[in-house]
Amino acid sequence: MSFIGDQIVLMVDRILLATDFSSASEVATGYARAVAKRFSSTLSLANVVDLSIATRSEAAVVSHQTVSERQTGLSRIPGGSANHSRL
After folding, report:
1. How confident is the model over 21-65, as pLDDT tens digits?
2. Residue 50: helix, strand or coil by DSSP?
3. HSE of 20 in the Cβ direction (CA atoms, 13 Å)?
4. Bridge-partner residues for 15, per DSSP?
5. 44 beta partners
6. Is 0.85 topped by the overall pTM?
7. Structural domain tally of the chain?
8. How deeply is 64 buried, as exposed, middle or buried, from its count of CB atoms within 10 A (0-12, 13-18, 19+)?
9. How do the residues of the chain divide into helix, strand and coil, expressed in percent and rounded to 5?
10. Long-range pairs, 29-35, Cβ under 8 A, ≥24
11. Across the beta sheet with 85-86, what order do the strands follow?
């Protein structure tokens, strides 16, 4: 952050958005996209699943289900993909 006269200049180069692909996360994603566009920032999405709490049989189901949910969530975001992109 720097100062120019009485104004504060804020630069946002990168934004990391944690998401669980819920409807609340979709709202947050829209906000993050707007901020990223405003500052010409790179927006990256992160989704973490703790497989240490799953049994072996659950891990296979969670893994498949998680991949499916991730792809569905990313498809809802205009221009969404597994990779981050500069807006």
Report:
1. 888 999 999 999 999 999 999 999 998 877 676 666 555 555 555
2. coil
3. 5
4. 43
5. 16
6. no
7. 1
8. exposed
9. 45, 20, 35
10. 29/77, 33/77, 33/78, 33/87
11. 14-18, 42-46, 85-86
